[in-house]
Amino acid sequence: MDRLRCFRMMLRPKTHVFLSYSLSLLLIIIFFFSSTNAAFNNITTIPFNDGYSPLFGDDNVVRSPDGNGVRLHLDRFSGSGFISSNMYQYGFFSARIKLPSAYTAGICVAFYTSNGDVFEKTHDELDFEFLGNIAGKPWRFQTNLYGNGSTHRGREERYRLWFDPSKQFHRYSILWTAKNIIFYIDEVPIREVTRNEEMGADYPSKPMSLYATIWDASNWATSGGKYGVNYKYAPFVSEFKDLAIEGCSADPIQEIPGGAACSEKLDKLDAQDYATVTPRRRLAMRRFRQRLMYYSYCYDTLRYPIPPPECVIDPSERLRFKETGRLKFGGSHRRRSKRRGRTFTPVVEDDQAD
Ligand SMILES: *[C@@H]1O[C@H](CO)[C@@H](O)[C@H](O)[C@H]1NC(C)=O
Ligand SMILES: *[C@@H]1O[C@H](CO)[C@@H](O)[C@H](O)[C@H]1NC(C)=O
Question: What domain of life does the UniProt record list for this protein's source (predicted)?
Fold first, then answer.
């Protein structure tokens, strides 16, 4: 009897902890995976063969048998890439992507929009760049934007992911409108840039193509270039499918998108569910950024003593960053991840390299 009571007393607090842990886990799962699902259920995809073509490393651009998707290979001879057949003046660019697994140090997989081929000196660009890692360490990624050739003003943010991007396909999307830019991973908006008059031409505004590439970025991608690509593990393969572009296809030279058809398309784009950051999505974005963003140019006062005009400085957030724009305490990140990060930062704990 006594033993049983003692046993129960021992058990109870643990049960309690377990229940509250399960509950918060459940809430997080609901939060991330069901709150905003509708936005991405109704995307019209363009089969690879109908809307895209190889950009470089043609032999390493391997179409899927059904013509829907493509695999980009990197081997010791070449990386590879593809480009959309059309350019778009504003749009939604999206794909389901699976990154190479195992040893991926030095590799960069990029999913981005650009017009660098047409406007060499004054190009616009919106980037997802995935950076490989040594065995057992997770992929990282960064987002960035340039407008009218503002390449000397990088606007990088760097983050960890809440899943292993080499295990399953996840949807990565870039929404670009006249008003704002939103980067999405699955249904979670991870970054929003609201157009600001002071940004001027730094805000991308000329028609862009969609690009995806895999390439050898040994000199910077992993721990500042410490670990390069090891071709013993080649070929490195990144898979793309369910590619989608919504927007107004436009002639880059004409610059101003013409006609009623275009404004209709842009109205439709603005009316899409994913064009609005609802309060719930904003909360999901804040949670993502609190837990997984580890560098922001907005807090990098060594580089930008005055933050660029689109930066929204959150005073409590700023406290967490050093003047280099990087997180102050690797330690506080660890504590957090031990307590409740398991659900969506399963790989953060031993991860201090970069
Ligand atoms: C899906 O998209 C089509 C075309 O944009 C639209 O007509 C339709 O209403 C959408 N359906 C839902 C459920 O949002
Ligand atoms: C873009 O840059 C070019 C070259 O620096 C400049 O001539 C042009 O005025 C800029 N465009 C805008 C919209 O500011």
Answer: Eukaryota
